[in-house]
Design a protein that fits this description.
- The protein has a domain of about 60 residues: 2-Layer Sandwich (Alpha-Beta Plaits).
- Helix content is about 35%, strand content about 25%.
- It has twelve helices and 14 strands.
- The strands form three sheets. A six-stranded mixed β-sheet has the order 6-7-8-3-9-10, with helices on both faces. A four-stranded antiparallel β-sheet has the order 2-1-4-5. A four-stranded antiparallel β-sheet has the order 12-13-11-14, covered by helices on one side.
- Helix 4 crosses helix 5 and helix 5 packs parallel to helix 6.
- It is elongated.
Length: about 300
């Protein structure tokens, strides 16, 4: 897969009374085509500044940015019709319908009415297209904003916190929309601080902290970076599990008691050692499975003050 976004050594600072503040501090980023790529970081981590630099809203920075093969900001005119961005809350006329708002926008930019129909269908607003924008829920307003981006039929969408403030149905609708756009061959680059939602909606993730990339990869690749462990259960109750834990500790394994069994600090390729150790003591395993670390646990570990300062 080719990369539609390439960022190398991006830096952007702002003046303050206490001296310059590094909003983005040497960010590296690569986004492959045809995926939903999450840009994950806490509020204040530099995500919005980085995205504003990507789309040309910020032009004074150091480092290299390439969008669809063109160097920014000078190459922006060459690719502006191939990507769309939603960086701020969409602004529409509240007393006009969603359809009318899009038609006015399309007319001003030379797009056809057919593009309006297609965009409304893609974001799932066809049934509410003729209702006033002012009656829309926050989630519907966000989806209409994405529809506005889709008028130009872009191959790349860059979205800054599009699910921020949405209720659960709105978040689900946005997640479904991302997956649909990717299935059409588009690339969706979406920033978020919502870890659980990124885990459900994205193919790949770049984690940022203090304006720097701390890790990037597929969800499986990122999970593999975490502390490996195996869940072990044996027939019986607390006493039987304590006996199993003692056997494993004597063999040098770290063991923690959990509600449904034991958590053993080791990798899956050593699972056979655990079963043999226990079987040699006439303790037989009823459950043996790897513990998959969720994105939240991994993110906290990778972006902790200690980890980022290293």
């Amino acid at each position: 897969m080719s990369n539609v976004i390439e960022v190398s050594g991006l830096k952007k600072s702002y003046a303050s009374r206490r001296g310059p503040i590094n909003a983005v501090d040497g960010l590296d980023l690569s986004v492959s085509s045809g995926v939903v790529h999450g840009f994950l970081g806490a509020n204040g981590s530099g995500k919005t500044t980085a995205i504003r630099s990507l789309v040309g809203q910020i032009r004074e920075y150091s480092g290299d940015i390439r969008i669809l093969g063109e160097q920014m900001p000078h190459g922006l005119p060459k690719v502006i019709d191939r990507f769309g961005a939603l960086v701020e809350a969409p602004s529409f006329f509240p007393n006009f319908s969603g359809r009318r708002n899009l038609e006015l926008l399309a007319k001003s930019r030379g797009f056809s009415k057919a593009s309006v129909v297609s965009a409304l269908e893609t974001v799932g607003l066809t049934d509410r297209a003729d209702h006033r924008f002012g009656t829309y829920s926050l989630g519907m307003k966000q989806r209409l904003g994405v529809a506005a981006v889709l008028l130009k039929d872009p191959e790349l969408l860059i979205l800054d916190e599009p699910a921020n403030g949405l209720d659960p149905p709105g978040i689900i609708a946005m997640r479904t929309l991302f997956r649909r756009l990717a299935s059409e061959g588009r690339t969706v680059f979406v920033s978020s601080h919502m870890l659980a939602e990124v885990e459900l909606s994205c193919d790949r993730v770049t984690m940022v902290a203090k304006g720097r990339m701390v890790q990037s990869g597929s969800l499986d690749e990122l999970r593999s970076l975490g502390e490996s462990s195996i869940e072990v259960s044996v027939p019986g109750g607390i006493q039987e599990h304590e006996s199993a834990a003692e056997v494993l500790r004597q063999a040098g394994f770290g063991v923690v008691h959990e509600i449904e069994g034991l958590k053993v600090a080791t990798t899956s390729d050593r699972a056979h050692e655990l079963t043999k150790l226990l079987a040699d003591r006439d303790i037989y395993v009823s459950v043996l499975r790897p513990v998959i670390q969720n994105l939240e646990e991994l993110f906290i570990g990778l972006t902790s003050e200690e980890a980022v300062s290293q």
